[in-house]
Amino acid sequence: MKKIYSIILSLIVFASSILTAEQTPIKNLSAYTLDNGLELYVAENHTVPLVYIEICVRGGGIAQTKENAGLFHLYEHMMFKGNSKYPTSEEMQTALSDLGCSNWNGSTGQEYINYFFTIPSAKLKEGLEFWSYAIRTPNMDKREFEAEKKVVISEIEGDKNDPNMVLYNFLSSKLFKEAPWARSPGGDAKIVKKATIEQLRKIQNEYYIPNNSALFVGGDVNPDEVYKLVNEIYGLWEKGADPWENNKKQFSLNPLKQTEYYVMPYDQIAPQIAQVQISFRGPDAEFNTSSTYAADLLFSLTENPQSIYKQSLCTNQALGIPDPNYTGISYYTQKRLGIINAYAVMLSPEYNIAERTKAYVQLVPEFVKQSIPENADSEDVKLAKTRFENQEYFTQETAENLLGTLRFWWICSGSNYYYNYLSNMEKLNSDDIKQFYTDYVENTNAVVILLINPEVYEKAKKDLSKNGFKLIK
Predict the structure, then answer these.
(1) Which residue has the higher pLDDT, 347 or 248?
(2) Distance between CA 121 and CA 219 in Å, rounded?
């Protein structure tokens, strides 16, 4: 009887390790989900005997609080400082060398943290094991911890002297007043200096869990064999509570009471030109999914040099925009941090630049409105949709490009967003685009930033101040 029971138990265990790949509409892309919630995506491409392996965790900036801003960044650094198999950073470096890495790295973004490398496909199992030990069993050695704090603080302090980061952080403080740190995953030096290992372990326990992570594997591999190895290596990784269950609040979509004007002297701008940027709060893929498609389509229509939007701005001689290459408007899809940016380069900033900037700001919504197609079957719309299709073909040319794109959409809104992107784009009609325009351009206040050479600023600052432009220091 015991023998029969043992056989049945073995069959159950064997059966639980077999999983058929989930259907995907992407050629040579297989998808799996382990029992612990870890998602696995495998892109098969036998062009060269290499394999790309990336593990990604939802987190980063949008998971930070005012009290722990920068600790996801610090945690990312500590991932390379030793674990239960490779106790020191030196041993990890040796392991990477033995794997034959052609490139490796990690990064902390606004909405994710990821770790990746490319190795010979013959080292697939060893590569999967490497990231498993790194992500599941980091040592958090006290000496390494204190040393790495100084590295992260140095990076943060260095950013303070970068005018691009000053501008970036200023915009975050205006469009995301509730949590400007969400767009600044680098963090706060004072908080990093006081960080404790216990705080990092808390991040590990809450976010570095399989049901908040995905593994992306691509190249010279067999998908089912990859799944078997991943199930063997990662299958016992313990599932945790959903870290987003009590964190579903959307940042304000109209955080400003009125459009605000700012000027920043910028020594990288030549005296002969000025650059204007208008930033609106845009839709979020997590909360306003349908609007993200409308944004992509509408602003794709404005990209054409002959578009109503670009031609109307460039033929307005008072603005001084030299040609269609010097103006545009775009939207970058994100999970919770959507922004719409319009920009223009203007010549001769010594002449009435404050008034010209304000005129440009008034005209942008009008010309965006004129760009809305009356017919979703128009030639312009068809061409725009064709461009999306062509871009998709280009994306799928290599396993690494495909997985990078998939990872981006997995972070924003899940893999189904990516799978259904083109079909949902086809469903858009003129009313959908008009609604997007009304919600996010026409009825939304913006942050306007004028970048101007310091010498020109000195000559124009009285006029700028009189016209309501405040100085970004």
Answers:
(1) 347
(2) 8
* 43 alpha carbon, distance to own chain's centre: 21
Q: How far apart are CA 64 and CA 348, in angstroms?
A: 43
Q: What is the dihedral of CA 345, 346, 350, 354, to 10 degrees?
A: -90
Once rounded to an integer, what is the mean pLDDT over residues 88-96? 95
CA distance 294 to 422: 12
Separation of alpha carbons 63 and 203, rounded Å? 10
Q: Which helix (H) or strand (E) segment is 365 a member of? A: helix 353-370
pTM for the full model? 0.91
- Asked if residues 313 and 363 have their Cβ atoms less than 8 Å apart, the reply is yes
Distance CA 66, CA 70 (A): 9
| Block residue for tokens 């100085």 | 471
3-class SS of residue 71: helix
- What's the rounded Cα separation, in Å, for the pair 53 and 185? 23
- Token digits of residue 337: 């941090």
Q: Report d(CA 292, CA 374) in Å as an integer.
A: 19
The Cα 358–Cα 442 span in angstroms is: 16
Structure tokens belonging to residue 76: 């990312």
Residue 63 and residue 183 in contact, taking contact as beta carbons nearer than 8 Å = no
Q: Which residues pair with 328 in a beta bridge?
A: 343
Calculate mean pLDDT across residues 128-134: 98
| Measured distance CA(250)–CA(336) in Å, rounded | 7
Angle at 322 between CA 263 and CA 434, to 5 degrees: 75
Q: Which of 404, 417, 405, 377 is nearest to 103 (CA)?
A: 404
Q: Do 41 and 415 touch, CB atoms closer than 8 A?
A: yes
Structure letter (DSSP) for residue 22: B
Q: Return the exposure string of 418-434: e unless at least 16 CB atoms fall within 10 Å of the residue's CB, then b.
A: bbebeeebeebeeebbb
pLDDT in tens, 324-367: 999 999 999 999 999 999 999 999 999 999 999 999 999 999 99
Residue 11's pLDDT band, with cuts at 50, 70 and 90, is very low
Distance CA 51, CA 117 (A): 8
Residue-wise pLDDT for 185-237, tens only, equals 999 999 999 999 999 999 999 999 999 999 999 999 999 999 999 999 999 99
Strand order through the sheet with 339-347: 327-332, 339-347, 273-281, 447-452, 260-265, 470-471
DSSP state of 469: P
Distance CA 151, CA 78 (A): 11
Q: How far is CA 2 from the centre of its chain?
A: 55
Distance CA 38, CA 33 (A): 6
